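Collaborator request log, item 7. Partner lab (contact: R.S.) asked for a structural prediction of Exocyst complex component to inform their binding assays.
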Amino acid sequence: MERGKMAEAESLETAAEHERILREIESTDTACIGPTLRSVYDGEEHGRFMEKLETRIRNHDREIEKMCNFHYQGFVDSITELLKVRGEAQKLKNQVTDTNRKLQHEGKELVIAMEELKQCRLQQRNISATVDKLMLCLPVLEMYSKLRDQMKTKRHYPALKTLEHLEHTYLPQVSHYRFCKVMVDNIPKLREEIKDVSMSDLKDFLESIRKHSDKIGETAMKQAQQQRNLDNIILQQPRIGSKRKPKKDAYTIFDTEIGSTSPKSEQDSGILDVEDEEDDEEVPGAQDLVDFSPVYRCLHIYSVLGARETFENYYRKQRRKQARLVLQPPSNMHETLDGYRKYFNQIVGFFVVEDHILHTTQGLVNRAYIDELWEMALSKTIAALRTHSSYCSDPNLVLDLKNLIVLFADTLQVYGFPVNQLFDMLLEIRDQYSETLLKKWSGIFRNILDSDNYSPIPVTSEEIYKKVVGQFPFQDTELEKQPFPKKFPFSEFVPKVYNQIKEFIYACLKFSEDLHLSSTEVDDMIRKSTNLLLTRTLSSSLQNVIKRKNIGLTELVQIIINTTHLEKSCKYLEEFITNITNVLPETVHTTKLYGTTTFKDARHAAEEEIYTNLNQKIDQFLQLADYDWMTGDLGNKASDYLVDLIAFLRNTFAVFTHLPGKVAQTACMSACKHLATSLMQLLLEAEVRQLTLGALQQFNLDVRECEQFARSGPVPGFQEDTLQLAFIDLRQLLHGPLFYVLYLLIKCCLLQATLKHFTFLFFHSL
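Returned to partner:
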């Protein structure tokens, strides 16, 4: 029972909930119906809800059908009435349109006539008024037209006067007219237009100056070059240590009147046409190329208009911009000298113009402004030269650049600009010049050493002998007494290297010219650069030749002889430098040449290479040794390889006759010791386990051949038997008592033992 009541209560609640959902669906917007429908499907009675929904839909359909049936007849009657009204309205529209068309046609001619009459009366009235006004205003218009003509023809000074007359005399008489007010309002604009026109001329002048500044600078530098050549002719002496020439009057050739208030010409030109001058004619002055009248006129106009300060600021601002453009070097300036020359010409041209403006105007530019521009130009120029000159690898280009910088500095100093920093920078470029010279001479030395035949120079006549002696300071009384043909002890690279060192000194001297250095400074610079040439460049070239793989003993011997003579020539190089600088070697702080050390080091390296090369040659011959330690034949002569080796050593040491005695003796002793040690190693090799009497006999003959070579004295200077001591250990090994017993045992065929074991016993017994 209770369960039935509970089911009935749940059914009532469900029915009430469905009814609420249906009302919510009917009253809620369609877009928000989703949550409501979700609540239906979340429950378990959605089947019953669908039945209720179908019932509610059928009820609404019945209500709609009843409502439509009730109002249908009234709707049909209304439509019928509207159709009747539309027909009557169309008839009325047609009547109105027809009436309007007839009215327009009938009134068209009248409208045209009235319009023509109106225009005629208006024209008559306007003409009469215009005549009256023109008669009154014609003088004003004529004056204004005159003003415009003067401005058009660039007659700026008369235009200013006309404008003044128009403003104070004519315009007040017709001031009640509107166009006069327009004129009055335009007067400031006309003044500005005059200012703008004159400023346009100034801009043309500035642009022309910018384009032709290199021509102006080139002319100024030619003048400076001519003056310097004239000074050199007068002085007839080098300029090293000389004082700077005084500033010349650069303005006597320019005759423009500064105070003139009238225009110079109807057309202003910044640069005058100048024909190319012949080399033998006088170079025109830099100011002869420039017409400065646009600057003077514009300055006067702005002064009259009370805007002088504005003009000065504008002029200085524009010139600063041009200065920055001029001081910007092209990226490829370092490739050719013309790039540097054009750069310098533009800078000189700029400052020649500014210097002239400074001296021919009153306050347009001042000394402080010029000094400021010059400081900026100096810093940027020096920075650009440091950067671009670092790319120069040709010493000739660096030398030409130095001469161009000197001319650039001399030219600007004529106009009163300080150039000490440029000469300081040249001292920096001097170091770079020395480096480029060292690189160039490195190639020269390399070519000389590579092309040399490393043979004594043959001489067949007195003329050739004097030519060689003239190239290299060599004195040998014994050689002079010898008949022709004869030979110098050194090869061709000695006089060539000596002369190239002198050429290097000359090249260093060329750079020091016109730098206003003292003789001591020039001497110090030349000696330091020469020391670098000797200790770094020449030394490296000699070391490279000595260390070459294909270098022979003959070449090494000749290198030692050559470096010996070059070492002796160092004192003549000292004298050569002293003669061209006039600075005595005894002067305090004078740098000494380090050529002696350079040639000694090269000679020592060659000596070591000779010792090494000899040992290598001996090793090559020993590789041909082919001892048959088990042979039974008793030989009666030395091995072929050893005979060839001894012959090679004899020929080699014969070449050592021109070497210092100590070098030849050391080489000979080193070779003999190395030969003895190598023969000992052959005898004591691990592979030699057995030997015969024939093998010992052959080895003994080879040792005797070596001893005979040592006794023959291949190199003079050894004391008696000194050289034979190199083979004493080997001889003791062969003639010792143990080997004598070994000899008897072998002879009697009683014993064969390992040579290594007996050698151990022998040394142990010692």
